[in-house]
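Intended use. Records like the one below are meant for learning the mapping from a protein sequence to its folded structure. Do not use them to infer anything beyond what is encoded.
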Amino acid sequence: MTDKELAELMFPDVKHDTEYYENLYPERNLKEGAVVSRFAPSPTGFVHMGSLLAAFIASKVPKETEGVFYLRIEDTDGKRTVENGVQGIIDDLKNFEIDIDEGVVSETEQIGAYGPYIQSERKEIYHTYAKYLVEQGLAYPCFCSQEEIDETRKMQELNKERIGIYGSYAKCRFLTNEERIEKIKKGEPYILRLKSPGDFNKKIVLNDLVRGKIEFPENDMDIVLIKSDGLPLYHFAHVIDDHLMRTTHILRGEEWISSTPVHLQLFQVLGFKAPKYAHLGVVMKIDEDGTKRKLSKRKDPEAAVSFYHEQGIPVEAVKLYLMTIANSNFEGWWDQNPTLGIDDFKFDFKKMSVSGSLFDLEKLKNISRSYISRLKANELYEKALVWAKEFDQEFASILEKYKDFSISVLNIEREQKKPRKDFESFSSIKKHIWYMYDEYFNGDLDYDFGKIHNREDIKEILNTYITKYFNENDDKEVWFNKIKELSNELGYCGDMKEYKLNPDAYKGSVADVSTVIRVAATTSSMTPDLYEILRLLGKERIEKRFESFM
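Structure written out for the chain above:
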């Protein structure tokens, strides 16, 4: 019996040969040096920060080279698939504005000429290449039961040998085709294994884009290619997919480094040119006790990319942070080029950390503050409104009701050399500006006037200021001079230098008087520019607030 006859028996429903698929998915018509990369998650839950980093880099590099970035769903392990897992991945990428050129765009729609982009829909393709390997004598059916495999493992552990099916442990490798066919005809269950041509005592070399030259022993394991249910294992499926989708660069986590000899061998036996590999370092976190560990989907809420969407941390800020993780020279570049964006920065694999990246939520928030501070007030208004419509509808209605006023509020201390940086996210805006809206300035409010705490003194300052000194049309210099006059009139020092020299000669300083006005108008002693706040509130609203307190 020939290998071809065995292949026909094992795969009777295969309609095409490998040449058919080579012609169906030809080399892409792209310019020289164009990168084709992919994000290929399993639909097993939300996209986490490590995956987002990989997807972000995998989308940026093709964009720089006029290449292609596509989304492929690897769902051959049905036991791990979760409900709405595919849509969750799509939504997470959309929320972070990571656009695909091809691939899965919804649970029912795919775009691109190299699909299907869902592995469970590519079973016939995998079987075609599996049949080819059997025909070439490079794969064989294995009839070993799970109990036999477990027994082999125990024996290997006892003898302190490498674990796996290889050499003499690959019992079914040595069956004749007649024996194999007889077992298949009897209905004995089987899986398909690679007949590895590797020699563990020989070395292969991977020139990793991040880590440089890595040496491995050749793979000699007869790994599983097709399971008993007819679906392929990841190793086999992704090699075929990456070849037929004409992938040039594979970006993946460092946990896959040890599998590289298997993957390179599969490319070799199938006659494919292997793509370039970039193994990315793990995203780490330091616990309160100083222990460094991998950022955990289970333990760390910030591991889920949905966390940032819900918190209202701008997509651009997260991307900026990811780029600081991805390339060590980005942060300095961004500081020197405040008017440019990520698309203007040239990514370099050699600038990636080999040891992994330490995730720092506070640093991300600082980057977010810096990013938000560079936005024009109308841009910030629009972005904050979009967030609020999804997560704080009451605040959204107020922003819409007072659009021009809200933009003016957001513009306080914005367009200047050192803009305010108190907004770390869209969700934090409300807690910094709520007092500007009468809808929130009701009920029992807390007032802490600082040094001046006598109630009659406070009333005197407020009454005198609003009746004698306040004028909405004053410029800032005139306004401040009036605050000084008010201070002097009521026994406070209008000159801070003088006050520091003779503090006991006065009831307080102009700063203390300003604090009284600030707190009565806003309830807070820490606000942006008081002049701008009072000017925007206007006399009628300020009077009501002073009266409310008094």
